[in-house]
Amino acid sequence: MPMIRAAVFGLLFPLALSLPAAAQTADVTDNPPYSIKSGDRPGFYVEVINEMAKLLNTKVTYEYMDWGNAMAKVRAGPDQLLFPFTRNAEREANYGWLQKLFTNTVLFVSAPGSQPIDTIDQAKTLSLIGVLAGAPWDKELASRGITNVKHYPTSPAMVAALKSGELPAAYGPEIELKYAWRAGAFQGAMVEGKPIQK
């Protein structure tokens, strides 16, 4: 156990030093498995931030809001903290970036028993593709010529539509989609395509 504790401390201490000194409130969205507004666990990003705060002998509180409000609030003022937040070219100049915590694998998923969607060309043939509202995946698909998208407020809502047959495919981070599928206790396993983006 001491080796694990030392490894965790070694990882978190440099991250803790990167927290904005005045940021005692973090702006987050209900975005399982990263940040979870209610439930047994707060989400693994919240757990990491809490451990970082402990190293600094402080406490971070969390204000849950939708993506649009969270992004606007952080852009408008200094010493604000927002996570989880995907770093991309469009956002680069608008925010100060502290620390990369995780790399997402982004892919298409479909219902059990369907064929995998491994390419953008395959996705273009679909009648509809679900994406998380406010996430960068919508613009990524549009830049690749895919406009047949439907926005969902949460990943759980999106995978429920996938399971019900309302939606032939969804596009987003593998970990989010898998978590939502398991949390929904759906039978079978989603069919995962090859990663489109890492």
Description:
The structure is a single chain. The chain has helices spanning 2-17, 44-55, 67-76, 89-92, 120-124, 137-143, 155-164, 174-183; strands at 25-28, 61-64, 81-82, 106-110, 129-132, 149-152, 169-173, 191-192. With 198 residues, it is an alpha/beta fold. The chain has two domains: 2-92, D-Maltodextrin-Binding Protein, domain 2; 106-192, 3-Layer(aba) Sandwich (D-Maltodextrin-Binding Protein, domain 2). The strands form two sheets. It has a five-stranded mixed sheet with strand order 6-5-7-4-8. It has a three-stranded parallel sheet with strand order 2-1-3, with helices on one face. Helix 1 crosses helix 2 and helix 7 (155-164) packs across helix 8. The two termini are 33 Å apart. 26% of the residues are buried.
CATH topology of the largest domain: the name is: D-Maltodextrin-Binding Protein, domain 2
Q: Which stretches of 5+ consecutive residues score pLDDT under 50?
A: 1-17
Biggest sheet: strands side by side, in what order?
6-5-7-4-8
CATH-derived architecture of the largest domain: 3-Layer(aba) Sandwich
Topology as H/E string?
Answer: HEHEHEHEHEHEHEHE
How does the overall form come out from the CA principal axes? globular
Number of strands: 8
Structural class: alpha/beta
Helicity range of the residues?
25-40%
